[in-house]
Structure formats: C-alpha cells, structure tokens
Give the backbone structure.
Amino acid sequence: MGKYLGLDSSTQSLTGIVIDADDGAISAEVSINFDAHFAEQYGVENGVIELGDGAVHSAPLMWADALDLLFKTLQAQGVELGQIRSIAGSGQQHGTVYLHASAGPTLAELTPRRSLAEQLEPVFSRATAPIWMDTSTGQQCAQIEASVGGREALLALTGNAAFERFSGPQIRKFYQDEPEAYARTHYIGLVSSFMASVLAGKLVGVDSGDASGTNLMDIRSRQWSAEALRATAPELVEKLLPVVPSCTPVGAVSPYFSARYGLAADCTVLPFSGDNPCSAIGLGLIEPGRVALSLGTSDTLFACMDEPRVSRTGEGCVFALPDDRNYMALVCFLNGSLAREAVRDEYGLDWAGFTAALQATKPGNGGALMLPYFDPEIVPKVSRPTVIRHQLDRTDAQANVRAVIEAQALSSKIHARWMGIDISSLYVTGGASANRDILRVYADVHNCPVHQFETTNSAALGAALRAAQADRGSSWQSTVEAFTQPVAGSTLLPNPSAVATYARLIDEYEALEQNHVGSAQS
Ligand code: XUL
C-alpha cells in the first residue's frame, strides 16, 4: 500500500491530505480551523494575533495543539494511520519560531500520556511567532539591504529584495527590540521546520524551499549566506537551524504519534517546506513554463523556472523548489480573500450574492475601477490600508464586487511581467478557485485558458506528493501525473470581446495604481 500524508500548516488552519499513490487518489482530507477550535485559548482571529503597528503574529503552540486534533480527527474518521509510509508538510512561509535549548530534549522525550501543548509550552523563548502578514519591519529591510551593498546585491545573493514579511528582517527586529530575549533564544526556525520537528521528535532543519523566503539563503548554493546572516543579527549562525535538502527523510515519526494515533514506527518524516513551494509541486509545476494561481488568504501567482531569474523591480520572489533542482517565481498579493471578504461584508452579501453581482455586471465595469488595499499591500507596496474608487459609486454593491475582482486580475497580469514568461494557461487553486465567475475574469484578463483543480489545497497535496516521491524514488513526472490533471470539463476559455476590453483597461488601471501607490506610502 502506498499511503502518504501531506500536512499544510497555514494561516487559518491545519490541513491533512492522505493520498494513495498506487490508486492516484486522495483518500482522506481533514482541516482544523484555528478560530473554530482555539480562538479564545490563543487569542487568535482569522488565525492571527494583531499587535498593532503592522505587527502580526500567531501562536506556535496552537499549531502543535492543532496537530494533535488533526490526528485525533483522522483517527475518528477511520483513516488507518498505520498504513502511512511517509509524511511531509508545508508551512505558511516566512514565519519564525524562537526556541530555548530545552526544545531538543523535550521533543525527544514526548510522552503520549500528555498532549503536545502541555509538553511544548516551556520550549518557546518567544511565545508568539511573527508571520507573513507582518509589515512592521520596513527599517530593518532598509538596514539589511544597505549592509550587503544595496538592494541589487541582496537580490543577486538571495534571489529576493528585503521584504517586511521575510524571516531575516523579522529576526533583526526581534534582536533590536528585545535583545535579552534574542540572547536567550537558542534556536530559530520557520513554521515549516517547527512542525517537522514536532512530528519527528527532534529538531529538523529548514528545507531550501522555505529557506529561500528568509533573505538569508544564498539562492545558488542553497546554504545560509554568511554575509546575509552578518547583515541581519549577531550569532545568527549558531541559532539558525541548518538548511537541509528537501527530498531526504530526516528519520522516523516520533514514538509519541505511534503510541497515541497508531502511526507505524517506521513511518518516515521529510523536512517540511513552504506552502507556495509545496503548492507548486501539488499543481504539477515541476517543469519550467507552467503557471499557477492560488486564490487564498493572499493570492499568489507562480511559475517553475530552471534558474533563479530575479525581479529587478524587487516586487517578485524567487524560491528554491523542494525538488532540490528547480526554482519558482512568485508574486504575493496580500489582499486576496481579505479584500474579497471585505467587499462581501461591506455590502452584507454572502458568496452566492457575490457571484450574482459578478454575473449581473459586464467586463470592464463601465470604466469603474478600484485599488483594493483593504490591508497594507505587498505588491504593489502600500504601507497603509488604502481603498481608491475611480468612477466607482461606493453605494453600488454589484459594481464594487466586479471592481475588486478585476483589480486583482489586472494586478496579477501587470506584476507578473518580470517573470518573462508567456502565460499560455493558468492552473488555479485555493478557496476562491471554486468560483467560476471569478476565474472567468482571469481567463479574459490573461487571455488564456484557465483550468480548475480538484483539490483546493494544493500545498497539502504537494506535501503528500513529496513524501511519495522520496519514499518510492519515482520520477517527479510519474509521481504528480495522476494528481495534477485539471477537473474534466473545467477549462474556461477567454472571451474575445472581454479580452479586448481588458487590453484597453489595463493601461488605465496601471496609471491609477502608479498615481496612488506613491502617495499611499508613508
Ligand atoms: C508568500 C507569502 C504567503 C504565505 C501564505 O511569500 O507570504 O503566500 O506563504 O501562507
């Protein structure tokens, strides 16, 4: 039997997908929503803790708690966990977890008689973890770039300009704001390495896919860069968990999980990777050229590349792909579901009403445009919430719904130009990808076919596929093939008249964006 488990520790939930690699099918899928189970206990809303001034954290202990609940739920559903041969995972990228020296021994001695949360509480040198939504490190970004010789130099070294959400600037801010707590910190890892460590019952390093979202890894050698570490914080080389290859198992699952949930003692654990690198695998982006779009809390557009081409404008990211071979280009728009939900809620709609509004309005929206930065935006960089309505009546619910979707689709086209890829088809995933009226706008804006995937959680699927590939030693192509076919009959083709409308509108949207983005930055 070839069963594999992929976990996705994301912003709002922890998801597990079990695949049967022999049948090419998903056999179980469970999601633990953080707000539903842990809102009060950990003080989270939408999975996060807002600390003001752009600081957004989450609670690593909650993620461990959710891991217990996920296995309990899988077990209660009758999933035979003993048949799982290997587990891999994905974590929301960039978030950093700070641990005491006791973390190693505590992980090694987990007793099945007590929960993970009870046992792990003392291991954190910082109770909360800054995550990717944190925009509080503008100063640190500038300092790091200056220290390595400027933005171009950091781009060439790490593949990325300094981003506020990236781990390096976050670590620097912690060191500057709380030097004593920084000094007491023995290990620094990412969300991905923390979850892998809990599962393996020992400290697991950071895979090169997720390490490339730190501003600390040399993008070519796939190792921490001494120069970037020096520019970030002292003694970082001793604190950071090492970069490890993505495809080499780190050992067997902790006896905690075997005793408590019946996992086989020889079930292996692979290093976890970032959610976007895992999504790339889960969408079959294993050869250069294919482009995918994930419509989630944030929206991301990404493509596979055989070499790390960088975004000179600094708006895109380059990550190592967790196949230990290729790279991926990514653009992350923070105002994804966040903006769609803000519009839905402002007009008291549900998703059916949102869809009806899209159906009742015409491509181009009669020239009405919106800049939808309900939260500070990553691309284009906007430091404080700014919603601009251009020829758009705020009281017109339907026009506002169309405006937010058209803004997102137009922006995804404008800010993907640096990838230098002719987008000939888009493969979509994420919660909002189930909405075909939203996808129609993307097909028309990008003038290409859009294909839907069966699973909306490509990150967890990608993680399960990574586990299968490593365990079976099979080729990537044969591993992903059965799982990455678009849903039969799901392909949406562009409509020529709407394509022409958007081809005219895009320049106007870009001009609006350029006019306002500068003035929206503080
Ligand atoms: C990517 C990014 C987000 C998070 C979401 O750079 O910041 O997509 O990975 O989990």
